[in-house]
Structure formats: structure tokens, C-alpha cells
Amino acid sequence: MSFTSSLKRLARPALRALLLLAAPAGAQTLPAPRAAIAQVLATQTAAWNRGDIPGFMQGYWQSDSLVFIGKKGLTYGWRPTLANYQKSYPDAAAMGRLDFRGLRITPLGPDAAEVVGAWHLARPAALGDLGGHFLLVFRRLQGRWVIVADHTS
């Protein structure tokens, strides 16, 4: 083995250690994207199931650029999306009990991810259950994971 190849072999672990030490301190304490996004969805579910649509909406980007695509077409903006939810689900009976199923959380980079899954609302027999599928686009903005686009059917 040559001196150069020995030096390269020894330098690799040292370089890795230096890179870890040079990483920003906060980078090591941030939750993994999948866990952080799953927590957003769990928080949304809990808010919905207590009849708190504004609390549910905290998982969405509070911006006019938020896009929601549903059976009624496109809705742009956090406030119009909130208003649509409030109109469609005027009381606890209409809201029912929400659960998400078959979640597939796929990071698209350090600050973006997509979530595919199914939603189900268990409601009183007179109203009937509802359900469908969704594709959410999440982004980490100002250190917080939020839904920036929602296509729900």
C-alpha cells in the first residue's frame, strides 16, 4: 500500500467527523421529516375530532398561496379554505370522527415532502360516513412543517 492511499484511508473518518462537528447545532435536534409530518397530521386529527376546524387548519400554510383542490374545484388561500371547511362541516355531527389510513410520507428533500393516504369520517347514520383519498404537499417553512397544497377527493 502506498503512502498516498494510506493517507486517504486515514483521512476519510477524520473528514466525516469534521463534517459532523461543522453541522449547525440545530440540524441535529430537528425531528425527522416523517415523524414531524406524522405529528402535524395527528394534531389535525385531534383538533377535528374535538370539533375545532380553526385548530385543524393550523396544519396548513397561512398564506394566500395555499392551494386546496377538491370536488368543487380550486381554492386559493388559507382563509377561503377555512371558510369552505366551516360551510361544509357546520357542526360536530357533520364533522364526524376523522381518521387517516394508509399514509405514505415521502420526503422530497430536506424541506419538502408528499403524503398520500385515505381519509374517513365516521358520522351518524342519518348523515352517512364520508371518505376518500388525498395527496398533500408539505414544506418546512420557518422551521415548521405545513401543508402548502392539498388535493382531496
Overall geometric form = globular
Number-wise, the strands total: 6
Please identify the top-level CATH class.
Answer: Alpha Beta
At the third CATH level, what is the topology name?
Nuclear Transport Factor 2, Chain: A
By oligomeric state, this entry counts as single chain
Spatial extent as radius of gyration? 21 Å
Structural class: alpha+beta
* Mean pLDDT over all positions: 86
CATH architecture: Roll
**What is the element string, with H for helices and E for strands?**
HHHEEHHEEEE
Strand order of the largest sheet: 2-1-6-5-4-3
Number of helices: 5
Number of separate structural domains: 1
Largest sheet: 6 strands, mixed
Cα separation of the termini: 63 Å
* Parts with pLDDT < 50 across at least 5 consecutive residues: 3-29
Name some characteristics of this structure.
Nuclear Transport Factor 2, Chain: A, globular, 6-stranded mixed beta sheet, 153 residues, single chain, alpha+beta
Question: Describe it for me?
Answer:
Helices cover 37% and strands 35% of the residues. It is α+β, with helices and mostly antiparallel strands and 153 residues long. It has one domain: Nuclear Transport Factor 2, Chain: A, CATH 3.10.450. Strands 2-1-6-5-4-3 form a six-stranded mixed sheet, covered by helices on one side. A hairpin with a 7-residue loop joins strand 4 and strand 5 (130-141). The longest helix has 20 residues, at 3-22.
Task: Write a concise synopsis of the structure shown.
Residues 37-147 form the DUF4440 domain. The chain is α+β, with helices and mostly antiparallel strands.
